[in-house]
Each structure stands twice: as C-alpha cells, then as structure tokens.
Amino acid sequence: MDLDTPLKPPPAPGSDSHATAAPEARRDQTAPEAQRTDAPKRRSILGRVLAWLVVLALIGGGVWWFAFRPAPEMAARGGPGGFRPGMPTASPVVTATVEKGDMPIRLNGLGTVSSLATVTVRPQVGGQLTQVAFTEGQAVQKGDFLAEVDPRPFQLAVEQAEAQLLRDQALLKNARLDLERYRLLVKQDSIAKQQRDTQESLVQQYEGTVKADQVAVENAKLNLSYTRVTAPVSGRAGLRLVDPGNYVTAGEAGGIVVITQVQPISVLFTLPEDNIPAIMARLRDGAKLPVTAYDRTRDRVLATGTLTTVDNQIDVTTGTVKLRAQFDNADQSLFPNQFVNVQLLVDTLAGVPMVPVAAVQRGAPGTYVYVVNGEDSTASVRPVTLGASDGAKTVITKGVQPGETVVIQGADRLREGAKVAATDGAAQPAAPTPSSEGPRPQRRPQRNAS
C-alpha cells in the first residue's frame, strides 16, 4: 500500500454504494451454481443420443446381414461368403444310370361293372302260380325250370283243339271220296260237271279247315309249355318277386325273378378322347389289348380281361369316350354295378432309354437333367425330350444315351459345371415315387335314402 495515497473513508451505512455492490456480489455467487446445474443435463442428453445411435447402428447392421448374407448352397460349395477352410467344395448328390429297357404304355380310367345280360323273367300266360322251383341267389343255366303256372286249363285247350282237328279231318276224308266218285260219273256222263266242281271246292275248304285246326293244336300246346317258366339265360337269380299261390298275368310288370349274367361279365369305362387314335390304331392291327380291373383303392387286382369295343361317339360334355372290356370272372370277383379302376395296356415301347422320374428337372431350359461327367466329376445341364412314363421311370426320346449318369437327388444345389460327390442310387434303398396314376380315385357318392 502507498503511504502517500489517501485512504477512502468507509461508506456510511445506508449509502447508495453499498446498495449497488450487494447485487453484483449476489450475481457473482449464483453464476457458478447455474453452470454447475446445466453441465449434468448436457451430459445426460448427449448420453441418450449416443445410446440411440448405437441402437440404430445395430439394427442397420442386422438388416444388412439378413439381406445380403450368403445362400446356404453357396456356402456349401465355397461361393462368396461361404467358403471355409477345410470344407469340401463338391456337392453331395445321388445318381442313377440311364437304362435301356421296355416301357409299357398304360391308360387309367374309372369304370362300372356291367352285366352282358340282365333279364326279368315274366310269365307268358296267365293263371295261378302253383310252384317256384329256384332259390334266391342260385346260379341257374339257360333252360332250367324256375316256376309253374297252373297247366290244367291249357291242357284242356289242347285236347279240345285236337278233337276239332279229328272232326275236320274226317269231313275232309269223306269229301275226297265223294270227289273221286263224281269224277268217275262225269267220265260216264252221268252227272253234270258243275256237281264235280262243287265237290272239289268243298274238299279245298275242308283242307283249309284242317290246317287251321292243326295251327290251333300247336298254339294250345305252346301255351301249355308256357306254364313251365324256364331261365332264358345263364346267370345268377336275384330275389323272388312273387310267391306261389298268387295269380299272375301274361307279361307281369314285376316279373317273377331277375337273372343277371355274371360269367362272362363286362366293364364300361371312359378315357379321354386324345387317347382314342392310339387305341383304334392298335385295334385295326388286330391286337387284343389287355385290361386290368382294380378295386376302389387300387390295392388289389380283381380280374384281367380284354378290350372288346369302343363306342361310336365322344361325349361332348366330358370329352371322353366309352369303352367295354370283357372278363371271364371265373371267381365272380366282379359284381354288377360295382365301381372299379381300370388300366388299359395300349402298347409297349421296346429298348428305349429310361431315367428315374426324380432326375427330370423343369426350369428356363424346359425339361432337363444334370449329367455327371466321369472325368472331372462335374454336373452339366442337358435338355431332354420326355416320352411315356409309368410313375417310377420316364422315357427320354432325346438328350441322353444309355449308360450315362444323371442326378436324382441334390439337383437343387447344382449349377452348370458344379463339382459333385456322387453316390450311386442303386446302393441305397429305393425312395417312394409318386404314381403316374395320380391320386386315388374318389369314392362314389352314396345315394341319399329317400
């Protein structure tokens, strides 16, 4: 402190200087406190911003990884992002050899068993039914005795017709004797020629009467034979429709019994119109096309027969045509109106290249197969033209040759020129293949009880 500087006296209490100094002192004291309060807030906001940025970065990275991650098949064969040291670069596949063999061409359809003859046996004369000689469900032969109508009235009719015939024959005989006498008398010029001519006309009249009587006798005998009702065809008798003691009339509406021929028996089935040219060509060549009938589930063979005829027109509503096949039905496994699945063997392709159905792929090149090259164990795409198929194997008409190796499993992981590790499919158990016959047929809808 300078001693020459005069000292300022202290301000008096209540003066203005003291009043102005107090607020400044308070501002100086509160400023550091506000700064200390704002600093934590700024740090909290900055932390939240950084946390959100981290979360958004993680979400973005996850989206990018899912969008651009390498495909499993690329990783398997060492593509971009998929190669790992020590992993094999060849794709494992199962192969089969193109074989040369025979391929049957079969057509499948739905059919109904139809009897070749279904006859309702009706009486041909009226009268009381005195006897029924068959049992329901009996196998009968043509001409077997089935029932009898009371024959007594018809027997009497025969006797009456025969009596009338005898009477008229006697009259004819007498008229012929008189004619001989008149001819002799005319020669002697003893009677007029008119009398002889009249006698000749009388003889002719009696001859006509005798012929009519003979017809009446035959008709009466025929009616008498109709009293014995016999089987018109061989077959199986159905349920009895009338009981003994009832009066029946000629042409009885209900009949006595229905006989259905079951040996042989036929099956009516339908096929698409596109198959008709091949079938007709075989029939024109005189071929007998075998037909196999299966049960409703196609699990059991019921009978085998041959195709007999093709209908003469196509059903325009369905685009199909009806065919009839005949079966011996020796074991009576086919029953009239039974629903069956039918398989028709049209032809057999001999010595054609065949591959398993699983070998055929479909894509941009059309239908193709992967052929394994034995030299470098690579797979190459080979477009092929398909032929007939039986559900397990397919004929290849163009594209591969017998002896070549094709991929039947693992083709979805291959590309042109890919390395493969082949395993022979013949050494593995055969996998089930879909049937060419498609899904099992639906059951026929049952009729609602009325």
Please characterize this protein's 3D structure.
It is found in: Cell membrane. InterPro entries: MdtA-like_b-barrel, MdtA-like_BSH, MdtA-like_HH, RND_pump_MFP, YknX-like_C. Residues 118-260 form the Multidrug resistance protein MdtA-like barrel-sandwich hybrid domain. Its main location: membrane. Residues 264-348 form the Multidrug resistance protein MdtA-like beta-barrel domain. β12 and β13 form a beta hairpin. Among the domains are: 105-112 and 262-427, Efflux pump adaptor protein, beta barrel domain (Elongation Factor Tu (Ef-tu), domain 3), CATH 2.40.30.170; 121-259, Beta Barrel (OB fold (Dihydrolipoamide Acetyltransferase, E2P)), CATH 2.40.50.100. The strands form four sheets. A six-stranded mixed β-sheet has the order 16-17-18-22-1-21, with no helix packed on it. Strands 2-11-14-13-12-15 form a six-stranded antiparallel β-barrel. It is of the alpha+beta class and 450 residues long. The protein has helices at residues 16-68, 72-76, 152-187, 193-226, 276-284, and strands at residues 91-97, 99-114, 118-121, 127-132, 139-140, 145-149, 228-230, 235-237, 247-248, 257-260, 265-272, 290-294, 301-310, 320-327, 339-356, 361-363, 366-373, 378-383, 385-389, 393-398, 405-409, 418-424. It is 30% helix and 31% strand. α3 (152-187) runs antiparallel to α4. The termini are far apart. The longest helix has 53 residues, at 16-68. It has five helices and 22 strands.
